[in-house]
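ugh finaly. both done.
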Amino acid sequence: MDNNNYQSMDVDGGRPVKMWTEGVPVEESARQQLANTARMPFIYKHIAVMPDVHLGKGSTIGSVIPTLGAVIPAAVGVDIGCGMMAAKTTLTASDLPDNLSGIRSAIERAIPHGMSPKTRHHRGRDEGSWHTPPAPVDAAWLTLKDEFDAICLKTPSLKNTNNYRHLGTLGSGNHFVEVCLDETNFVWFMLHSGSRGVGNAIGTYFIELAKKDMRRHVMNLPDQDLAYLEEGTEHYDDYVEAVSWAQKFARMNREVMMQNLIAAVRTVIKKPFETHVEAVNCHHNYVQKEQHFGRDVLVTRKGAVSARAGELGIIPGSMGAKSFIVRGKGNADSFHSCSHGAGRTMSRTEAKRRFTLDDQVRATEGVECRKDAHVIDEIPMAYKDIDAVMHAQRDLVEVVHTLKQVVCVKG
């Protein structure tokens, strides 16, 4: 297999950086972040960079960071286990009603989404959580509860999170639920979310703990958000346990949402249909132990998807753009990874400054979705060209299905 379409960036005093970014822009600030991370003493072989790479907190989004004997909590981030789920149905485009607003409304009723402004800074139930969680949430929570209780014995501050009421909910920002059509007009359901409030609490707690450890040992870091936990220490073991649980929560969160999404669509479309004809559920913000180049390595994918040979993954475009179901090629140099999306080209603040509501309406023509000032930061023009992103990673994945959304629900 030809692995030569990556670009190499040598880093003084650090490991090499291999970048699958041919034909896509990479901001200078992101290159500096990559160099900072590559200088950490526990990086294994090199850092792999996906074509959706852009500036993140501490480490770039769209990077794969293999480590030996240490983990960087801020590289995993606070939306632990964030990822995608997609399921093909036996419905076709002709089975959808001419007016899709009924489907969108049914989904919005079935899946809590968004966040109350007051709860961004204050504790309490927000509009994006359940008031009374339904039976599927209860059943799913029972599979998670005992392990969470054990984690709380070590970290009591996590007890007060909205974990149970957030299970099966969407959140806000770039999280979404979509109804899509593939290249042969079959209907797919697709959604994007993670570990919600409890993942944020776990990530934030251990990021601050790592920073305290660094200050205690007078570590000179190029960026304080590269603070790390060393293997064999109590905090390391506690973090690995907590982050593994948050990743289970995130996967279960998507499963419960998919159940409720399917049930919601059945209330509108009376024709019997099957789902999970083809289904994918994959993380793109996570850490796990894997074997690469003959060694057991801790691999952090910060905005990247596992793409082992034959493994299915999801690469969504922006709101209004194409998305892709892909099959991994098992590229060793990428640590068997691919991008997690198109990748932003500008901040949310800049997108709101630069674009208008009219721009948003034009960019999402043909999609039944919110068209208001609060989602301008998700406008397609704030993201990289998904076709260029896919071309840049042609050695990492092959396209199995091309999806185009017809309904999009955002928080």
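ok and the 2nd:
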Amino acid sequence: MNPTRLRTALARWTVWAPILALLPLPFTFGKHIGPAWIVIVAALLGASVLAAVHHAEVVAHKVGEPFGSLVLAIAVTVIEVALIVTLMLSGGSDANTLARDTVFSAAMLTCNGIVGASLLAGAMRHHTVTFNAEGTGAALACVLTLATMCLVLPNFTSSVQGPEFSGSQLAFAAIASLALYGLFVVTQTVRHRDFFLPVDRADYRPLARGNGYTTATRDDLATQESEGEHAEPPTKRAALQSLVLLLVALIAVVGLAKVESKPIEDGVRGLGLPHSFVGVIIALLVLAPETLAAVNAARRDRVQISLNLGYGSAMASIGLTIPVIAIASIWLPTDLHLGLGHTQIVLLGLTAAVGILTVVPGRATRLQGGIHLILTAAFIFLAANP
């Protein structure tokens, strides 16, 4: 098939898929559905995810980095918050840990799964991958600070018995999370934008002394960003259309995932898995668009975009979800348990150590990608077999 026709067919398909995905919602939302509807909804959910990836990449290409990564990270966080609040409103004995399980799952799947898959995909195609250690390190520092403050500290406070904050402590954690996330966004998009732009191999050259490496100058990176991909940026009309369709696709993902949530919970229960595994599945669903977008960027030797997506999603997942859940907890019919268990804290600490060692050199090989993916597998396995 002619490549031009193939791209045209793909573009048309991604226009209609999100719209078609909305059609079953009036007939399935909040209702018990049979096996046939479960299969149909699952297929439409997958199509919506793929359409969201396409339209997010179009918007990202138009606005440039790092704004494109930021758009997708915030959009996916909206999905996550909506699913968590919806499921917590249904109550149940395990609803009080759903926010913690989902947010921690998102952090582990982004910092290990997305990062690892991107590094491995990029290194398999280009042998080594390069990125800005300054920007990526700053993002990782924010993620670790947010994770520790919101998910670890509740175990060690004494105002309230159990793994939860008191009202004032939760308010402080929410405000601090928003402040830190806002500071990072300003740093990423205004003051030090060049730290988060892709690095070309030619710009990652040896220093005069020693075996260190230096990245390109601010002017070099600005030129690189303006060149972007070889394809011409989309028109303003096309970008606006993709933005609207991205929102439609994300709404479809939220609705269809909610429809699938009851079958998912029944499946988890039927397999004898702990209820906390529902949080892992929710995180896998909502992070699918970013995972595909990050791997695609890595294959194009734009690993910095992949890392922006991975760590940016982890940061948004914690820094935006926790404040919203904190406000929603006023009306939620259950307590909010945020403190992680011992196994989860160990995995978070190991992720922090490995992440630092991966980021500091500013370049990585298949080995680093494999390490992160092994940590992802360990997290999923231990979530299913605690």
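summary for the 2nd one i guess: Residues 236-270 form the longest helix (35 residues).
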